[in-house]
Amino acid sequence: MRSVVLLLLGAHLAYAGTHSLKYFYTGVSRDIDFPEYTAVGLVDEGQFYYFDSNIKQAVPKTEWIRQNEGADYWDRETQNMVGYHQNFKNSIQILKERFNQSAGVHTFQEMYGCEWDDQTRATNGFIQDGYDGEDFLSLDLKEMRWISPVQQGFITVQKWNKDRAYIESDKNYFSSVCIEWLKKYLEYGKSSLQKTVSPQVSLLQKDPSSPVTCHATGFYPSGVTITWMKNGQEHHEDVDLGELLPNEDGTFQKTSTIRVTPDEWKKNEFSCVVEHQGKTVTETEDKIRTNNGESFSIGIIVGALAAVVLLIIIAVAGYVVYKKKQGFKPVSGSDDGSNSSART
């Protein structure tokens, strides 16, 4: 009898390594039953901050930020985001003209933030803009210049690259200001951000001829690797790796699905290898959940529903890269945790 072996492997380490502070801004060109502007802040991939143009208020999403930052912080963030909303609306209009568009729903997005390795002390910063799901602008901090992969972005690139003082300000923000806020947030939330929770892993299959999904959920931190093995060798053919999704309780989930014929299953031994921090679990084929037994879809659906709002905010037109457009400049190191740069 063939067996499907599930292994959970990982380094026996406390939560250490690379930490991140990221912000995602999304502007939408017209009412589609979704806020015109949304902003999400993430520490180590967990949401701690939210704003949208309907509620018109920056709000905390974790207890650790709620307990450590008071009304002044949130009032300042709200004022910044109200200004960003108008800048995103202006930028979409300029981009519609550049791309010769007069109708339809359009999105303008920005992603920026920094990373810090608490072991090597290495740091990294990034800021990117996207329009309608495609890359538009990004800042190359090594070369100290803005770049664009599309002709419509060249005007902005030429304009911004002439402002060396502003690029220096960007560099300072990502190498210093952003890192300091990341460290502060990590200190605020150390009791929850430094926890380690191992994943619950299941093999899911609709029926014997359907693809098999390896589903890891409930784990923290977010770093996890899922790979399939065939007869002891890594197997990448006909494998679909899902996106990392947040669960409502602050943990994460991820899936990897393999498509093979029933005959191939019978003749070979497949295994799903999930790498996280520190545990080994083995499951055999008779434990695969199917629609005839446990309702395996429930666990995925619950987590996915919790993730839907966040993922829509991060990417209305697909999970892409983000930023601003002509006359829409990037970072100026603010006195809070976010980038206060957007202006036309």
Instruction: Provide the helix percentage.
Output: 25-40%
Give the second-level CATH assignment, the architecture of the largest domain: 2-Layer Sandwich
List the secondary-structure elements in sequence, H or E. Answer: EEEEEHHEEEEHHHEEEEEEEHEH
Radius of gyration, in Å, reads 22 Å
Shape: globular
Instruction: Please work out how many helical segments DSSP would assign.
Output: 7
So what's the CATH class of the largest domain?
Alpha Beta
**SS content category:** alpha+beta
Mean pLDDT: 80
Strand arrangement, largest sheet? 5-4-3-2-6-7-8-9
Measured by DSSP, the beta-strand proportion falls in 25-35%
InterPro entries: Ig-like_dom (IPR007110), Ig-like_dom_sf (IPR036179), Ig-like_fold (IPR013783), Ig/MHC_CS (IPR003006), Ig_C1-set (IPR003597), MHC_class-I_related (IPR050208), MHC_I-like_Ag-recog (IPR011161), MHC_I-like_Ag-recog_sf (IPR037055)
Family: Belongs to the MHC class I family.
Organism: Ctenopharyngodon idella (Grass carp)
Keywords: Glycoprotein, Immunoglobulin domain, Membrane, Signal, Transmembrane, Transmembrane helix
Give structural notes.
The chain is an alpha+beta fold. Helix content is 28%, strand content 30%. It is built from 7 helices and 17 strands. The protein has helices spanning 63-68, 71-98, 154-161, 164-188, 190-193, 262-267, 297-314; strands at residues 4-9, 18-28, 37-43, 46-52, 59-60, 107-117, 123-131, 134-140, 145-147, 200-205, 212-219, 225-230, 233-235, 239-241, 245-246, 252-258, 270-275. The longest helix has 28 residues, at 71-98. The radius of gyration is 22 Å and the shape is globular. Belongs to the MHC class I family.
